[in-house]
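COMPLEX REQUEST
Ligand: uridine-5'-diphosphate
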Amino acid sequence: MGAEPHQLHVVLFPFQAHGHMIPTLDIARLFTARNVKATIITTPVNASTFTKAIDTGRNVGNSYIELEIFKFPAKEAGLPEGCENVEIAMRQPGLVYQFFLATELLQEQLEQYLDRVRPDCLVADMFFPWATQSSAKFNIPRLVFHGFSYFSICAQELVRVYEPFENVSSDDETFILPLIPHEIKLTRSQLPAELTGDKDHPMRKRIETIKKSELESYGVIVNSFYELEPDYAEFYRTELRRKAWHVGPVSLCNRSVEKNTQRGKEASIDEQECLNWLNSKWPASVVYICFGSTAPSFAAQLHEIAIALENSEKNFIWVVRNNGKNDDEWLPPGFEQRTEGRGLIIRGWAPQVLILEHEAIGAFVTHCGWNSTLEGISAGVPMVTWPIFAEQFYNEKLVTDILKIGVSVGVKKWSRMPSVEDLISREVIETALREITEGDAAEEMRQRAKQLKEKAWKAVAEGGSSYSDLSALINELRSYHTQKQV
Ligand code: UDP
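STATUS: Structure written out below.
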């Protein structure tokens, strides 16, 4: 009898933020569904994001995902005990840089682990550039996961290399992204000031290091699908000369209600209650509003959103992460009584994919985090785009100018902590809500969004572009393993 064939083992190491951990869990599921063993590295405070979902997989007898817990060196980096997630660090100005320092201190534990376990591949987050060197020590191919669209990765790289923002005379004057097939206009104020100002800014240095490690890595794994952004899948590979595999939309690997509700945190609403509410509404009649896991909100802005929703007379589900604010600071008195029956506020965490995929949802007001954007696309829902920070302004352009499935509320400034001077007024919000739900242009956007949904599902089905790219990646990793043996 011949020896058992070697089972590939992929280790995934996500950045400690829900927008990175959630798609990583989905990617791990994609691997186990192809009989590849997957282990996710996390830290004690973040483990709960994975444990329940992993236990469910185990119960249904799938090849399951293992969890490896590293100690998070919060104290060593000068962070409060338990500050193991960037969302916690962002609540206090100044802690984010220390948070990044703490992640660098994980390198030693990673190397000990890789030495001991010797997996066949390490998928490490872009925020861990040092992981390329660590895995090279043990001849393990390292893949980078940004959690971005192809378009955003390309745009970010073009802005970094060509600095088109240097050619304008003010922060509000538009410049055009160079070299790409679409005419995309941005302003300097829509980019992080730390990347357009002082060349020695630590964040700028960090991005340089990330890009260098990306070039030295084995390749990049992208949560997107070819048919969504073919120009940029090509541009990234051909013009920017990166080796990349797209395997998304990864959220589509969750085919059950149970798995869709086990995304990220415990939902703050009973899923059945949520579904019953949606079942009572006409198709495409509800606006869903959610700004992801990290983007901050301020009371005056929440107040404007409330009034816009009330004046629009639309049905809505509104997710409010009010971070300890009392209702009376932001909610107009009597709002919930007046909107009873047509509006639902979820305070905390929503089962987002479950909601988006319901036929009652007609539009999504989103901060353009890539997971949310792609989840909206996968559900065939047109969007009102409201970017705040990170690479969200690029995702907005993809949605409004390239895919033409959204309208913008017109945010002018990139900011980790927007304040009253960045306020979007109730009138502007209400106009955007009408533009995305009423009239011929809205119908055209809805039709285009529906077509993209169909393409998304085809991409992940057997033989589809993402399915095939994952097969190609697994085959390459197999060959790599075989070559190592000879
Ligand atoms: N999410 C969710 N419920 C919420 C808020 C967010 O399930 O109430 C999920 C959402 O479906 C997405 C992720 O959290 O998968 C957020 O990632 P995204 O990239 O959109 O934004 P980020 O939180 O990283 O800014």
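REMARKS: The radius of gyration is 22 Å. The pocket of uridine-5'-diphosphate is lined by residues 18-19, 22, 263-264, 290, 292-295, 319, 349-350, 352-353, 369-372, 375 (CB under 6 Å).
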